[in-house]
Amino acid sequence: MWTGQPFDVLMSSDVAGIGATENQRPNVIADTKGPRTVEEWFNINAFARPKTGTFGNMGRNSLRGPGLNKWDFALFKNFKLRESLRLQFRGEFFNAFNHPSFTTIGASLNTTTTAVNPTINSFGVVTDTRDSRVMQLALKVNF
Predict the structure, then answer these.
(1) What end-to-end distance do the CA atoms of the chain give, in Å?
(2) Structural domain boundaries in the chain
(3) Residue 79 is inside which H or E element, if any?
(4) Model pTM?
(5) Contact 3, 99 (CB under 8 A)
(6) Digit-coded pLDDT (tens) for 118-136
(7) Which of 44, 46, 51, 80 could form a disulfide with 124, with the two C-beta atoms 3.0–4.6 Å apart?
(8) Which is it for the CA torsion 34, 36, 26, 57, positive or negative?
(9) pLDDT band at 113 (very low <50, low <70, confident <90, very high)
């Protein structure tokens, strides 16, 4: 089990007026801890657009993404067929308990009203997962 990666909420437009939108963060106006659900990973109401020509007060990497809870295991049985011939039956299970592992969270605070579809907003929403359970069986002959 691993903890999640740190990340930032970023602005989707050049609020500070520096000619680029990279690394411009919003103002934090409330506690950022949210319900940690797929629909709202952090408190989306805790952020506000800073005044035009200024930078926001949010610190770098102040939010933490979802962690990883993944259990892998293998079972195998060896059979001796002859003196120099052995057979191994093997079962391997990756993410054996099929625990969902979330990855990408919408972290772009939309500050413009020119979105193609304004009803779709992924801010604070988990938008991707890692691989689900994988099982494989194998026979191996050793001679």
Answers:
(1) 38
(2) 1-72+100-131
(3) strand 73-82
(4) 0.68
(5) no
(6) 556 788 888 888 888 999 9
(7) 44
(8) positive
(9) very low
Q: Output the six-digit token pair for 138.
A: 């194998």
Residue 73 has pLDDT above 90, yes or no: yes
Residue 112: which of 4, 18, 21, 5 has the closest Cα?
21
Q: Long-range contacts of range 107-116, CB-CB < 8 Å, 24 or more positions apart?
A: 107/7, 107/8, 107/9, 107/10, 107/63, 108/9, 108/10, 108/11, 108/12, 109/9, 109/10, 109/11, 109/12, 109/26, 109/47, 109/49, 110/12, 111/11, 111/12, 111/13, 111/15, 111/49, 112/12, 112/13
- What length does the chain have? 143
CA distance 96 to 26: 40
Closest CA to 7 of 41, 56, 48: 41
